[in-house]
Amino acid sequence: MFAVIRIAGQQFRVSEGQSLYVPQLDAKTGDKVDLTDVLLLDGKDGVKTGADAKATVKVEVISELIQGNKVIAFKMKRRKGFRKKHGHRTHYSHIKVQSIA
């Protein structure tokens, strides 16, 4: 059994017992979170999509903040002495899927 869920505009294919990194959730470490935005559900009854896929995915937050790799944006104009450097690290949450109901 698996489900396709939407978290922060991104789609993830999840199954029970799976752990994955998702965009940062507003929850603390150890919290149980119910995700209700299910796009597709595949189970014993077959594949259900859209409004027919009424399910709840229960997840546990393993780690509330994990930083991704640093991404650097560097701008330069030659012969002008113009240099600008920006960098950022995307924040993720590490979650584990407990059940799909």
Give keywords.
single chain, 101 residues, mainly beta, four-stranded antiparallel sheet, 0% helix, 70% strand, elongated
What would you note in describing this structure?
- A hairpin with a 2-residue loop joins β1 and β2.
- The protein has one domain.
- The protein contains no helices and eight strands.
- It is elongated and about 65 Å long.
- It has 101 residues and is mostly beta strands.
- Strands 2-1-5-6 form a four-stranded antiparallel β-sheet, with no helix packed on it.
- The model has no long low-confidence stretch (mean pLDDT 96).
- Helix content is 0%, strand content 70%.
Topology overview:
Elements: E1 2-7, E2 10-15, E3 19-23, E4 32-35, E5 38-43, E6 46-49, E7 57-77, E8 82-100
Antiparallel strand pairs: 1-2, 1-5, 3-8, 4-7, 5-6, 7-8
Average pLDDT: 96
Counting structural domains, the number is 1
Count of DSSP helices? 0
State the order of secondary-structure elements, H for helix, E for strand. Answer: EEEEEEEE
Largest sheet: 4 strands, antiparallel
Poorly predicted parts: none
Radius of gyration: 19 Å
The proportion of strand residues reads: over 45%
Strand order of the largest sheet: 2-1-5-6
Shape: elongated
Structural class, please?
mainly beta
C-alpha termini separation: 10 Å
Helical content band: under 10%
Number of strands: 8
Explain briefly what this protein structure is.
By secondary structure, the protein is mainly β.
